[in-house]
Design a protein that fits this description.
283 residues, alpha+beta, Nonspecific Lipid-transfer Protein, Chain A, Four Helix Bundle (Hemerythrin (Met), subunit A), 2 domains, six-stranded mixed sheet, 10 helices, 6 strands, 47% helix
Amino acid sequence: MTATAPLRSLEPILVLDRFAPLHAELIGLLRRLSPGDWSRPTACALWSVRDIAAHLLDDDLRRLSFHRDRQPPPGSPPVSNADLIAMVNRLNAEWVAVARRMSPRVIVDLLEVTGPWVVDLFRATDPFAPGFWGVSWAGEEASPHWFDVGRDYTERWLHQQQIRDAVGAAPLTGREWLHPVLDLFVRALPFAYRVTEAPVSTAVVIAIQGEAGGQWTLRREQRRWGLYLGAVPDPAASVSMTDDSAWRLFAKQLEGDAARRRVTVVGDQALGDVARTALAVLA
């Protein structure tokens, strides 16, 4: 039985103060890599450690060019989520191919410059103003700036963690690093459940164990699923996992049988199983 906590409405997650420390950790990590580490494979299909580092540089350059400088992205504007995914995948592939001409030192030197510029851009914008990008994995075409920034934080944390996994470096999984990621990732759940029908007031509790974890409740409302902090007694389904399993699940690094082994569902299996398919990345 899931321990209960009073339900509370979700609040904005302001992570701007975590960007500079996260960036410092990235630069320190990359500076310590051996020549052989740069070619190690990662959880990102077909991408090495070097490719992920180059992609993080591309994230900075795109944010500065498209957001700060209002340079239109190349090609036709996406009109659907499928178009957006195709555009992002194309831009990613083009950049990584070109960046393979760059030395690791050049990539890190450039990241040292661009990272603070991105922080300055984020700091100059009201967190409650309209964001530059909508958080599509949460089902939003338009999002407030704080959510756009939060999504950016989750991507940067995730890619750094993939590098750390690949080279055997200590993970950044303490509460100060990982809890904001999970608190943002769970906001993908209402979108994941959007076509799941259930009687009004049906509840699904999501319990993430570990230092970075927490409890959230999905509750069926008249036309949607709402997400709340806390847990209700006797939900229709309880979904539990460790904080390590949680970030891997939302990042599409835990699927199929592995997800069924590491994500436990008690109660309505079909209802709880939807949570195993939730994604907080473009896919």
